Every structure is written in C-alpha cells, then in structure tokens.
Amino acid sequence: MFRKRILVAGACGQIGSELTLALRERYGNDNVIATGHKTKPGEELLNLGPFQFIDCTDINTIEGVVKKYEVDTIYHLAALLSAVAEAKPQLAWNVNINGLYNVLEVARKYKCAVFTPSSIGVFGPTTPKDNTPQETILRPNTMYGVTKVSGELLCDYYYKKFAVDTRGVRWPGIVSYVTLPGGGTTDYAVEIYYEAIKHRRYTCFLRAGTYLPMMYMSDAVKAAIDIMEADSSKLKYRNAFNVTAMSFAPEDIANEIKKHIPDFVMEYDVDPVRQAIADSWPNSIDDSAAREEWGWKPEYDLVAMTKDMLEKLSDKLKI
Ligand code: SER
Question: How many Å apart are CA 180 and CA 190, to the nearest integer?
C-alpha cells in the first residue's frame, strides 16, 4: 500500500477544497497538509488538519512544508484556469510551469509521488472533436493549453529520467457546489445552477450548441484518488489519462434544470474569448485507456448530477 503523507497545493480552489476533505477522510486528518497561496481557507479546511500558506513559484516554501511534515505525496492543483490565463499569459506561464517545475524538483529530492491535473485544454483546433482519442494531436492555441501540454511532458520526463512517480488525468469541466471555480471556460455549467436557484434565469457566456466534456465533482475526486492508488506497473499514460463522465451543450443543461424548475429561462450573451477557447476544445473524449489501465468509471451523468446539484445548492443557499 502506498505510504501517505500528503501535501495538497491549491487546497482552497474549486477542486482542492473538496479533494482535501476526501483525502483527510481516507488517510487521516493529520496526514493531509492543505496549502494555499492567498485565498483564506474555509473553516472546515482550517480546523480539521494542518494548513500552511505557500507560493509554488518559490521553491523554498514548498520544500519547507515537505520537510516539516515528511510529505511523500503531492497533489499539485495550484494553477490558473483557461480564461484567466488568456488575460494574464505571463502569470499563467509562471504559476503553471514554474510552479510545477518547483514541485517536481522537490519531489525528486524528497522522493515524493506527484499528482498533477492536466485538462481537455491540451487539445486544440486541429484535434479530432468527437470522442477525442487518448493519443492524438496536441496543438492548443491557448496559454492554458500550452502550459498543460508542457506539464504533461515535464511530468513524463521526471518519471523517465528521475523515477519520480508522476501521475495525472486530463480533467474535463468540473461541476460542483462547494467552492466556485475561478476563471475557467466551463464555469457556466456551475454558475447556471446557482442562478437557476436564486433567480430562475441565467445568461450563458457560451453559445447554444457548444458541446464540452464534463464531470461531477465526486467523480473528479474519485479519479484523483484512484489513479494515485493504482498499480504503477499497469500505467502506460501516466500523466495524461483522458477521463470524462458526460458531454453536453448549454441548452441540454438548461432543459434538464427545467424539469425541476419549469419557469427557468436561459439567455445568451456570448463572451468571444471563452467561446473561442470552447470552440478549440473537443465535444467529447474517449477515456477507454483510463478504464482499462486503472478501472476508471464515473457515477454521475447529467440527470443524476442536476438532481444532486439542485438539492445540495438549495440547502446551501437556503432557498
Ligand atoms: N475547466 C477548465 C477551464 O475551463 C478546463 O480544464 O479552464
């Protein structure tokens, strides 16, 4: 069994805030060190186990935590998402690439395993759009995509050259109700539920007919835990496994919401930057390699996710 003393970088983010709690439940509160940069951590994150501020672009801050807590596994979730990365490409390169490089260097020195999320952002306009294969053209035209492709290659390199146990998945858009995503192209699929409950109407920044691969948070968390527990010798695509759970366009999610909130109204006001990013990404992806190599299987489809999101959010928003 994999030894576990885990550092989570980006623990205050959309995925980190939920993954950290799931890891603590599984491996023990004191064995999971949550870290964040500037965002104030939520009460639960802060009270259940250790929390430290770090800056991934400063290697000493990562090394300090790894040494102090004798960390053996790093979940490196700290990154800028696609829309923010287009607005701040230099910062995105610095955080997404130099941050990852620092994490890998610390992992090499202290023999840590590393989970790094990649993304559907690695694909570009020349990639086949439907059921996009595991092995395909990776020529993204966004800074986010450039950093994610580079990250996959860098992680592969650290495994081959230095035997660092690097692993990762290409997450699609992630839908969740605990922490809002920060500046991604798939964020509409989260916002729509909040607005449906609060105002019964949503103005979508992507055009109708824009299909994208998506996943509910509990499946995303499961993927991150399962791949790190998988038998290393069985993994061929260590750092770049396609994973998906569903594929839908804005009108599909609106129609599903209408089954629960009949007077829900969807309007469109397209943001050209995020539309262009979405147009460069696949409609759906093929995740058979993940299914074969480490038993990946998602639980939630659009119907089940919508039901759960509306229930959980109504509780949260007290509506
Ligand atoms: N959800 C991310 C984004 O939209 C993609 O990985 O930026």
Answer: 7
Mean pLDDT of 136-140: 98
180 CA → ligand 1 middle, Å: 12
Tell whether ligand 1 has an atom less than 6 A from the beta carbon of residue 179. no
The Cα–Cα gap between 194 and 200 comes to: 9
pTM, rounded to two decimals? 0.97
Q: Which domains does the chain have, with CATH numbers?
A: 6-172+216-242 (3.40.50.720), 174-214+245-285+296-317 (3.90.25)
184 lines ligand 1 (CB under 6 A): yes
Beta strands in the chain (DSSP E): 6-9, 32-36, 51-53, 73-76, 113-115, 118-119, 166-167, 169-171, 173-175, 201-204, 212-216, 241-242, 246-248, 265-268
Give per-residue pLDDT as tens, 172-217.
999 999 999 989 999 999 999 999 999 999 999 999 999 999 999 9
**Any ligand 1 atom below 6 A from CB of 81:** yes
Atom of ligand 1 nearest to the CA of 148: 6
Please say whether the beta carbons of 16 and 8 come within 8 A: yes
Is residue 144 among the annotated active site residues? yes
Could you tell which of 77, 80, 82 is best to mutate to test the pocket of ligand 1, judged by most ligand atoms within 8 Å of the CB? 82
